[in-house]
Design brief:
This is ABC transporter substrate-binding protein. Keywords: Signal. Pfam families: SBP_bac_1 (PF01547). This protein is α/β, with parallel strands linked by helices. It folds into 2 domains: about 190 residues, D-Maltodextrin-Binding Protein, domain 2; about 200 residues, Periplasmic binding protein-like II (D-Maltodextrin-Binding Protein, domain 2, 3-Layer(aba) Sandwich), CATH 3.40.190. The protein has 17 helices and 13 strands. α9 packs across α17 and α16 packs antiparallel against α17. It is globular, with a radius of gyration of 21 Å. About 50% of the residues are buried.
Amino acid sequence: MSIILSRRTFAHAVLGTTALGLLTACGGSSGAADADGTTTIRFAWWGNTARAEATQAVIDKFEAANPTIKVKGEPSDFSGYFDKLATSVAAKDAPDLFTLGGAYPAEYANRGALLDLSKAGDALDLSKMDASALTNGQVGGVQYGVSTGANALAMVINPAVFKAAGVALPDPATWTWEDFRNIAAEITTKSPAGTFGSASVLTHDSLDAFARQHGEELYTEDGKLGLSEKTVADYFAFSLSLSQKKASPSPSEMVEQASVSIEQSLMGTGKAGMMLTWSNSMRALNEAAGSDLQLFQLPGETPTPGIWLQSSQYFAISAQSKKSEAAAKLISFLVNDEEAAKILLTDRGVPSNSAIRAAIAPELSPSGQSEVKYLDIVGETKFAPTFIGPTGSTSVGEITARINTNVMFEKVSPAEGAKQWMSESAAAILS
């Protein structure tokens, strides 16, 4: 899924009944060719410039292999992506194919916005996908999304910042959250002004992991909140302590960081020793920082792991699309073609097709190999089951970010914030 890199959402996308409740599952048709006999489809995704360039290169290869299909790419910054998508869906002008993340597949599927991919027929080949990846894209047993690749929360480490500060690297197998805070504060103290031990405070995704480490869960299998008010209060208190002890930037600096690109982030500019984010951010962060970054396990994983594997993103087809067959062919190309995979590498997660993983292995940089190795460790971990958030849960990410910000600015106490979080989050998933 850091605040600026969360694969849920730092800024809430408007997905209420006003936007999506008006939809009807039209069901895509396979025709709708243009006057010249070609079929033009729209493909929307979020990401930085590097992702846009790589995706366009794959689109060019797809069009060369499928000369009767044209693809209009619609890249967007993450910050405005879901607002734009929700608006286009409500206006019945949705892209034929788009990417989703976090709880959005369930949110869109439950409101009738996604095509049941079993209707795509032979155009979509998912036979070589990992079974767990297929399950991740299902809502109520129906395949609505296709995993772009595996992903997991991780701590990105910049050894160069540690070395410059004279601070030893932690033991990723045994370190605690207190170790993380103390090490981060030490780096800040021993580094030039503007360099911090941690690039961010905690996020909604880390609340999920924090709860799991305490034997709880963000959501239960039946779509209820699965964590206690005390755990939420402890989470907010720890987040506040990171800022107070100067382990991370001040609240005002974090608000500024929330809207910057990967390249402009503290980790991307080499001004952070650590950053909690998603593993598939490694490639972009490594290129931006110009340094050999490493992926460490989360603090506090002993004795109860909080980590889990999830799909980085999903490819989905709009229920409104009249060109679903062409869109399905593009998805199939994106997840099964070796040449496409060698361009995309692990940018949208480690591929969920074993043949594709083998094909890209020689092409991976040290950072890419580090990501694959880290996911192997996660894959061997005996972690608790995970459940996709229920309808309305996309609002909970915004609630977490907003209240956490208020706690950091000391507008509310951690205990008051936790009480507010429980009330607002319960109401959100019942709406």
